[in-house]
Q: What sequence folds into this?
């Protein structure tokens, strides 16, 4: 009888085992998301470019918690920074097919978790930006469209999930700044972007000071994105310096742990005339250990030194050209090496370095294009105008003005290009030192004389006029100036100038016209 009872219970026992196994299978299919200690430490290591440490932590997490999908997203973060900073085509070709595997794995996650859409959106967005950098524009547009779908769905289902705002904001900004010659991309995406809305979404995380531990953890990343996206889009210095304050308070206190943060701070400071403070920040990187080299910081330090007319900048540009395996800014670095030779009075050294620009790949960045124009033109810059330009860019306005006004005009102006640059430089210096009347006069002269020329001075003068008018509340004049900038077909810095003018017009949409 006992044997029969065991026989009768066996089917139920087997069903119980089968059901348990099925439930276990379902649980594994619908994997979890856990930002536990390993993942948090891995994320922080990634933001500090300690990729070897991050890989070790991710491997430990995968073994300890095989159902946790956050390591997949973290691996994508490493690939994103590796390709964005390193720019090596061979690495891109090796890694570009990984996104399909990552997406398939992430799609096994629990759809009721806010991390489901967040992780998928982030991976697509990261790869959209990677593909843009490597010229794969069609696939980039597709990735942006997918990213927007995930972030948008997350916003509907989990409106209080703070870090979703970062990705949503980046998408909105990217779409709002699509150049006119790539309008087919925004048509393919089927989206309309808003610059201000996008920046505000990212800012919500950058300034967050609430109890959400994960949102607080993402503040440096949000600040970095905010700095990167607004670097050339802000309407005045105060906007840029506010970004530095987001990272630390007071703004120039040096407590930097990540090369990314050094890049963000130094670039903002340099673009806004705080050259000495930028140098202080850049020197801090020598005390930071990292497993992935951020070579562009050598280029930045070279520029900061060159802005002081310090010819020791040569070593940093030379270091950049020797170590960097990507293509961007190599031509610009050889141009700067040529400028150092000019400052040293070495015309032979200038020609040697500027000719190396001609040997580089087809330029993509405006800086590399401008370097190629100078090299192909065969004419060295006017030394007085060059010194004034560098000093003005560094915020040393009194010294820059001395170069222009304390030398005979005939030594600074030897061609139509020189004349356009002369009035443009005066306009910039007067603008920066608060003499707006003289700034407007010189900008207007530059636009009038140069709007049909291929040089960038007229387009940049029109853009600066737009900024000046916008900041003074003369929105109708600002609108006209920005549109003038867009109408000028300069061959130098065209893409960035038109992007900035378009950003200005987007800002003006929130204001009623005022003359």
A:
């Amino acid at each position: 009888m006992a044997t029969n009872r065991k026989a009768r219970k066996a089917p139920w026992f087997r069903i119980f085992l089968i059901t348990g196994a099925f439930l276990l299978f379902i649980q594994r299919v619908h994997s979890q998301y856990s930002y536990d200690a390993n993942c948090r430490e891995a994320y922080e290591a990634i933001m500090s470019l300690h990729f070897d440490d991050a890989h070790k932590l991710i491997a430990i997490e995968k073994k300890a918690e095989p159902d946790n999908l956050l390591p997949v997203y973290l691996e994508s973060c490493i690939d994103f920074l590796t390709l964005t900073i390193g720019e090596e085509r061979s690495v891109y070709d090796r890694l570009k097919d990984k996104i399909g595997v990552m997406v398939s794995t992430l799609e096994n996650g629990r759809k009721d978790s806010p991390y489901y859409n967040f992780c998928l959106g982030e991976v697509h967005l990261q790869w959209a930006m990677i593909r843009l950098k490597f010229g794969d524009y069609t696939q980039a547009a597709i990735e942006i469209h997918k990213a927007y779908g995930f972030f948008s769905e997350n916003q509907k289902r989990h409106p209080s999930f703070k870090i979703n705002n970062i990705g949503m904001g980046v998408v909105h900004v990217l779409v709002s700044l699509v150049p006119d010659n790539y309008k087919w991309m925004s048509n393919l995406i089927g989206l309309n972007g808003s610059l201000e809305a996008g920046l505000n979404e990212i800012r919500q995380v950058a300034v967050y000071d609430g109890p959400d531990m994960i949102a607080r953890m993402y503040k440096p990343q949000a600040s970095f994105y905010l700095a990167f996206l607004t670097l050339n889009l802000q309407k005045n210095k105060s906007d840029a310096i506010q970004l530095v304050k987001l990272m630390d308070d007071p703004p120039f206190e040096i407590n930097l742990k990540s090369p990314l943060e050094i890049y963000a701070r130094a670039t903002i400071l340099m673009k806004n005339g705080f050259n000495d403070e930028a140098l202080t920040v850049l020197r801090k990187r020598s005390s930071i250990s990292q497993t992935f080299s951020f070579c562009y910081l050598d280029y930045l330090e070279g520029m900061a030194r060159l802005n002081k007319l310090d010819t020791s900048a040569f070593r940093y540009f030379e270091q950049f050209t020797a170590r960097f395996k990507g293509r961007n800014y190599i031509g610009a670095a050889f141009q700067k090496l040529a400028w150092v030779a000019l400052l040293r009075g070495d015309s032979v050294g200038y020609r040697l370095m500027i000719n190396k620009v001609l040997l580089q790949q087809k330029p993509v960045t405006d800086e590399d294009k401008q370097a190629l124009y100078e090299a192909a033109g065969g004419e060295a810059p006017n030394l007085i105008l060059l010194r004034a330009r560098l000093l003005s860019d560094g915020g040393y306005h009194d010294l820059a003005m001395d170069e222009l006004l304390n030398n005979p005009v005939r030594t600074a102006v030897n061609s139509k290009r020189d004349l356009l640059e002369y009035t443009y430089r005066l306009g910039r210096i007067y603008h920066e030192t608060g003499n707006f009347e003289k700034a407007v006069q010189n900008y207007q002269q530059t636009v009038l004389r140069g709007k049909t020329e291929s040089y960038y001075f007229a387009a940049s003068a029109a853009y600066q006029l737009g900024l000046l008018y916008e900041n003074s509340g003369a929105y109708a004049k600002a609108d006209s100036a920005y549109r003038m900038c867009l109408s000028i077909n300069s061959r130098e810095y065209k893409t960035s100038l038109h992007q900035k003018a378009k950003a200005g017009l987007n800002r003006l949409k929130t204001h009623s016209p005022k003359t």
